[in-house]
Every structure is written in structure tokens, then in C-alpha cells.
User: Which sequence fits this backbone?
């Protein structure tokens, strides 16, 4: 029987950590399924995950044809959770920066009444191992975001998160206009502006011990642009609806993972195949 909780991690070339991550998650005393979205890793990660999925029915893998961005992988994780009827989703990085043992802690925040929980480096009790430029960037970036966006949180950018799916309007997260690292800030801004109960859970964020960063140099610029856009555009958020089952089917790759990016544009989160016309929105 399917569990009601989906744990999701995006993954690209993380062979040095993904095995330990999967082992630690699968040993947790919780009932859940585990989804990885792998962007055709070239270091053996894909083969490892496919063999793990063949051996353990809790593990699911979607392999995309190329590196399509961490934000779009998260949107696919959320869509997968929706269409398979899970009631809770937990997301985290695959490089062991997020401690798998923090998963029960963010879920406990949902059990205690939160709609959305975020693992936080900057709230009281939170820690980060980043040093130098990365520490400055994440600390200053999150402080600026707190001032400009005026959300009730100190952490806007990390991916360790948990949500009750019945509290989040379907289509809101799946259609976020950001396929890279800006996804995280846009997503939490929308949820806070809709008035969801958001709780910060203090975490110790570790620097990746293996592999290399996938963050492009343009990520900072992209984050600044998103921050200004979110600060200036305070219109009421109107989520795009999720497509029906037949609309979701992608004519390019055949997968059922299309979402609306606007009222006239359907985009496949698996292959990025697009369809634009006047008449899509019913
Ligand atoms: N599927 C997919 N996963 C990605 C992509 N980019 C990053 N990831 C994964 O997203 C997670 C976060 O990426 P990281 O490179 O660790 O980004 P970061 O934590 O901000 O940077 P570091 O601190 O340098 O590790 C990791 O699990 C990556 O493997 C992508 O384009 N596609
Ligand atoms: Mg990382």
C-alpha cells in the first residue's frame, strides 16, 4: 500500500553522497516513498538509483534527458506527489548538506499544526558550515530577503522543506516561474502571502563533503531579479490550475507531467516540451 508521505530529492552527479543519503532515509522509522529526479547524471548516479528502485518498491526515479534545473526538478517532485495522491511532501538536497535525520523533525512540525515547515540555518538554534563568500552570500541574501519581502521567516533559500499538500493550492508550486535556484524564494513567498502557517525548524546545514556544486554563477543574479520582482509585484496570487489527466500527457516524451506556465502555455516538467496556443485554458 502506498504511503501518505513522499520524500523528494533532486539529483545531478551525486554518486559520492546519494547512496549514503538513500540508506539513511530508508532506515528512518517512518512510512514514506522516496522519489529522485535525476537529470541524466554522468557519474553513475542514474545507474545506482535505477538499481535501487528495482530492489526497493519505496524508491522511484524519474530520469530527465538533460540538466533542466533544480527548481524544475522540485516542481516535478510536487506534481508527482499531487498526481499520486500523497498528502505530505518533504524535500531535501542529495549532497548530505541536509541531515536525513532532520526529516522526522520537519514532519513533526506538520503534525504539530504547521502547513509548511522549513529547515532553517538562520533562526535561533540554526547553524551553517558555509565559510567565506558562501556564508556571506547566504547570510546577507537571506537578511535582505527578510527586509524586502517581510515574510515571517529568516530562511528563504534552503531546500529542506515539508508541506501538507491539502493546505497548498494545487498548481501554485508546480507552476512557479523559476526553474533554477530562485524557485525556493518564489515558492516560500507565495505560500507566506497566501497566509499559510509556516514554521522554521532549526537545522545544522553542512557543507557538501563530496562532489561539486551545481549552482551556476548566474544564480545570484537570478535571485536578485526574483527578489525585486517579488517585492514590486504584490498582487493577489492566483494559482494556475493543474492540467487534467489528458492535458498533462506530453506529446513529445509521452510522460504525464505537463503543467501550465501561463494560461496559454503547457510545459512538460520531464522534457521541457512546450505547447502554446490561445485555446489551452478551459
Ligand atoms: N535534477 C537536478 N538536480 C539538480 C540540478 N542542479 C542541482 N541539483 C541537485 O540539487 C541539490 C542542490 O544542488 P547543490 O549543487 O548542492 O547546490 P547548493 O547546495 O546550493 O550548492 P553547494 O553548497 O555548493 O553544494 C543537489 O542534490 C543537486 O544534485 C539540476 O539541474 N537537476
Ligand atoms: Mg549543496
Assistant:
Amino acid at each position: 500500500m502506498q504511503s501518505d508521505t513522499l520524500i523528494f530529492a533532486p539529483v545531478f552527479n551525486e554518486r559520492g553522497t546519494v547512496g549514503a543519503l538513500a540508506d539513511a532515509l530508508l532506515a528512518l522509522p517512518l512510512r514514506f516513498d522516496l522519489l529522485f529526479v535525476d537529470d541524466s547524471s554522468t557519474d553513475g548516479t542514474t545507474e545506482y538509483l535505477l538499481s535501487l528502485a528495482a530492489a526497493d518498491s519505496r524508491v522511484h526515479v524519474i530520469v530527465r534527458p538533460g540538466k533542466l534545473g533544480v527548481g524544475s526538478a522540485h516542481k516535478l517532485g510536487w506534481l508527482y506527489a499531487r498526481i499520486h495522491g500523497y498528502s505530505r511532501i518533504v524535500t531535501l538536497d542529495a549532497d548530505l548538506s541536509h541531515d536525513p535525520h532532520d526529516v522526522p523533525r520537519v514532519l513533526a512540525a506538520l503534525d504539530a499544526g504547521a502547513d509548511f515547515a522549513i529547515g532553517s540555518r538562520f533562526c535561533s538554534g540554526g547553524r551553517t558550515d558555509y565559510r567565506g563568500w558562501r556564508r556571506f552570500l547566504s547570510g546577507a541574501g537571506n537578511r535582505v530577503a527578510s527586509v524586502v519581502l517581510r515574510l515571517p521567516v529568516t530562511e528563504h533559500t534552503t531546500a529542506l522543506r515539508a508541506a501538507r499538500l491539502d493546505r497548498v493550492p494545487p498548481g501554485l508550486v508546480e507552476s512557479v516561474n523559476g526553474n533554477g535556484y530562485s524557485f525556493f524564494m518564489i515558492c516560500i513567498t507565495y505560500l507566506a502571502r497566501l497566509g499559510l502557517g509556516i514554521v522554521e525548524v532549526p537545522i545544522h546545514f553542512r557543507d557538501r563533503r563530496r562532489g561539486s556544486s551545481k549552482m551556476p554563477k548566474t544564480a545570484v543574479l537570478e535571485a536578485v531579479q526574483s527578489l525585486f520582482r517579488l517585492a514590486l509585484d504584490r498582487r493577489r496570487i492566483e494559482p494556475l490550475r493543474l492540467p487534467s489527466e489528458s492535458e498533462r500527457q506530453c506529446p513529445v516524451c509521452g510522460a504525464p507531467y505537463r503543467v501550465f506556465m501561463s494560461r496559454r502555455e503547457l510545459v512538460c516538467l520531464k522534457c521541457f516540451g512546450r505547447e502554446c496556443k490561445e485555446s489551452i485554458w478551459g
